[in-house]
Structures are given as structure tokens and as C-alpha cells.
Amino acid sequence: MPGQALVVYDPDLDLASNVVPGENGHTQERALLSLLEESLATGEVWVMDRNFCVLRWLPRIAAQPAYVVVREHEQTPFKPLAPMQEKGATETGLVAEQPIQVIGPDGQPVVWRRIRVLLHQPTRDGDEQVYIWTHLPAAVTAQTVARLYLKRWRIETAFQHLAPDLNTEIKTLGYPRAAWFGFCIGVVAYHSLAVLKATLRQVHGAAVIDTQLSGYSVADEVSGAYRGMMIAIPPPAWRVFRQLTVPELANVLIDLAGKVPLAKFRKHPRGPKKPRPPRPFDPKHPHQATAKLLAARRA
């Protein structure tokens, strides 16, 4: 394992706003959280999976003041202050809420909101209910918080584009910094893809692009046509784009998006994936982080 990366993703812009690299591939993502403190901004809402439900981290976000929506980790302690009260339903399940007390890093008790969603359909891990913590004000309803947490899954879709479509995890890049570089170049390419998709949404509609456009087909088309395009259209022809303002460039892209033959780039859904067989594990030969092996060699 050449390294670890903690990615901050903006679901509204469909962009990765920050990447925190870690050399040790066995490092827990939560160990990199402290490096994000400078990125916190007043009024932001940070939506996180249960791996980040850590009491020494959550109050730091609240102190900005920013807000947290995080899935509950079963090992994170708390004290219920009242029973669950039904709050209605969302598209995915029945919602209830209760106040809870947690202990902050300074030892002082803090009151947060605990929201339960009884799911209509279990998660892929078989969970039939999800618990979410937040300290958003009461004006933000429990249903809104539940819907907001569901947006977190869009980062999983982004990683699906990063790994197979844009080839950001190149197996031969064993050195940590080389692997980071390759991954971050892939993130830049993903941003280009995000701009392209945003433009297509303006012309063809968000529902069509989000459900029918194949990121793999688009990436394959660009990689296949790029070299020939740069020969057929010499560099001077591209300089006009340097002078365009953002609105002018957006208008050009929207005009071009209307000429894209979407049928050529449609998804071809397949059946359910077969579960991966478990990786063989030999206690005599445990997995080792590349960074540790390199450090031992230098020593």
C-alpha cells in the first residue's frame, strides 16, 4: 500500500476541494483530520461517515463555528437526554430524533442532536437503521439532516470515476509521493470531467446526465482523440480561450454541449456484481505499508 489520502468533496460543485496525503498506507483517515483544521470555515456543514465520529475532532469543527452531520460510531460514547420522538419520513425511511450529551475534548458536556432513520431498504452492509449526529440548529429539520447525510454517498461515485475511469491508482507507483502525485493529477482530470458534466446538465438536463452519461466512455473518448486533436488543431488555435472571461467560456461550453451526441456516451448497466473473494491472509507474512519498508531501508 503506497499511501493514504483523505479527500474533502463538495457535493454541490461535484469537486474535490482538498486532498490530505499520508505516507503510511495503514494510517487511519481520522489521524489526518487535524491537518484539515485550517480548511474549516464559518457556516460550512461537514458531512462525514462514522469513521470520523471522534469526540476530539467534532467539537473543533463546532468551535469555528462550522457544523457537523456525521454517522454514529458504535464505540463513540454518549448519554441520551430524552426518548426518540417521531419526526416524519423521507424518501428513504422513517425519521426520529432525540437530544444527547457528549463530552468534548475539554471535558465539558455538550448537547447534540441524534437522528435515527429506519430505512425502507437496508444498506449494502445490511444495516436497517442509521443514526446521525449533528449540532445544526433546530430550524434545520431532522428530515433535512437525513437527506443531507445521503449526499455523502456522492463521494463514493466520485471515487468510482477516479479509480477505474481516470486510472488514478496506478499499481506500479509504489513510492508514496509518486502515488500521491498520480492520484492528484487524476483529481485535476476529474475536475475537468465535472465541468464537462455541469455544462451538459445545462443543455440536456441533470436527470439525463446523472443517470445515463458514462464517465468511462467520456474519459475513453478524450484519451483516444486527444493526440490527434492536438495535431489537427495546432496550439495557436487554442489561445483564444485564454482571453475569455468565465461567463464567456461558459457560453462557449454550453454551445458545444448542444452538439454532443449523448447516445455515444450512454451507460450500459450490467447485473449485480459478484462479491469479491476474501483476500488470503498469512500471519507469517502480514501486509506492510510501503512507507515503513522505505524508512527501514533508509535506516
Short description:
The protein has 299 residues and is of the alpha+beta class. Helix content is 34%, strand content 20%. The protein has eight helices and nine strands.
Classify the helix fraction into a percent range.
25-40%
The counted number of beta strands is: 9
CATH topology of the largest domain: Transposase Inhibitor Protein From Tn5, Chain A, domain 1
Query: H/E order of the elements?
Result: EEEHEEEEEEHHHHHHH
Structural class by secondary-structure content: alpha+beta
Q: Which residue ranges are poorly predicted, with pLDDT under 50 across at least 5 consecutive positions?
A: none
- Beta-strand residue percentage: 15-25%
What value does the Rg take, in angstroms?
Answer: 23 Å
CATH architecture of the largest domain: Alpha-Beta Complex
Fourth-level CATH superfamily of the largest domain:
Transposase Inhibitor Protein From Tn5, Chain A, domain 1
Key structural traits:
Transposase Inhibitor Protein From Tn5, Chain A, domain 1, 8 helices, seven-stranded mixed beta sheet, two-stranded antiparallel sheet, 299 residues, 34% helix
